[in-house]
Amino acid sequence: MISKLIYWKFSAVLIIATIFIIASLDSFRLIPQLEILTSASKYWLNIRSSNTLKGHSAWIYGISVSPNSKTLASGSYDGIIKIWDLHTGKLLHSFKGHHDAIESLAISPNGDILASSSWDNQIKLWNLKTGVLINIFKGHTDYIKAIAISPDGRLLASGSLDKTIRLWDFRTGELLYILPNIDWVRSVAFSPDSQTIATGSENGMIKVWQVAEGKILNILGKQSGSVRSVSFSPDGQILASGSYDKTIKLWQLNNGKVLHTLMGHLGAVKSVAFSPNGQILASGSYDKTINLWHLPTGKLLNNLAEHSKPVWSVNFSADGQNLVSGSADETIKIWPMELSINKIYLNKNKKLYK
């Protein structure tokens, strides 16, 4: 069968090499629409972590990478924030000041300020380089589950178990709006143009809000489990939502329709993140793995399974060189992406070639 497939006139060495490669895969073909759901996926994207960072003494909930892709911040159930050199893995600083678990982190667009939210119901702003506490935002009356800084650096959004979303002036700490919700707010994200925010709730509802007036623009729909993470694509056209129902939905924002429902995780999806080029979506799950998805087709590229406990957070570096994951196993893993992603390219017909 293989001999019939290889008809071209190559050298004997090349023929032998080609036969060896084909025989080593369970199913090999040029794969239209990126249908690499078999062992061939490991041939196309053979990703392994390059570094494992240790230092926290409890679950790692939140991670954030600086805009220059050099610094990584991590927040933990131990109430401590740690700052790392992303490339060497060296621990640079430890920030202490929260009195309970730290669930969400965000670094300002200029890379100078780190925002952290905690189960102590406070948001704190820190000088990222020195660890000096700059400001404290108070007002929430229950655990703060998520924060996000607008890409223009003007606003901070926070979502809480007190069933509110709050919009703050990032520079002054002034509370601008309180957006009421009917259930716990689990996730928040700003659009790339800073004009809208998306929120995900315990009841599975996903809402899109206008920032300027604090009004609801759209209710996209409802997932069958709480929405633990929302993320805008880099072009602002698609919203990804990860849910406790083990699925990820990709929403077309101009019409509110579902483009794809991504199924593959065996546990709740805690975190989703787009690659800077908008082609790849990473998802972290309670099933202890990270899935990499191809956005134009919704197909699974690979499953990364090095963590020993649930993966709470995933984040791409802005330069696209690395994916970072934080886990309940108290470690952070760095996954080099550039070399692996550059082994493939997509033509205009969305076919995958080596």
UniProtKB/TrEMBL annotation:
Name where the WD repeats lie. 53-94, 95-136, 137-178, 185-219, 220-261, 262-303, 304-335
- Presence of keyword Ribosomal protein: no
List residues traversing the bilayer.
Answer: 6-25
- Where do the coiled-coil regions begin and end? none
Pfam families membership: Beta-prop_EML_2, WD40
Q: SUPFAM superfamilies under this entry?
A: WD40 repeat-like
Q: Which domain of life is it from?
A: Bacteria
**InterPro entries named in the record:** Beta-prop_EML-like_2nd (IPR055442), WD40/YVTN_repeat-like_dom_sf (IPR015943), WD40_PAC1 (IPR020472), WD40_repeat_CS (IPR019775), WD40_repeat_dom_sf (IPR036322), WD40_rpt (IPR001680)
Q: Residue ranges of the EML-like second beta-propeller domain?
A: 145-299
The protein's UniProt keywords, in alphabetical order, are: Membrane, Repeat, Transmembrane, Transmembrane helix, WD repeat
Cited PANTHER family: TRANSCRIPTION INITIATION FACTOR TFIID, TRANSCRIPTION INITIATION FACTOR TFIID SUBUNIT 5
Protein name (record): EML-like second beta-propeller domain-containing protein
Q: What is the lineage of its organism?
A: Bacteria, Bacillati, Cyanobacteriota, Cyanophyceae, Nostocales
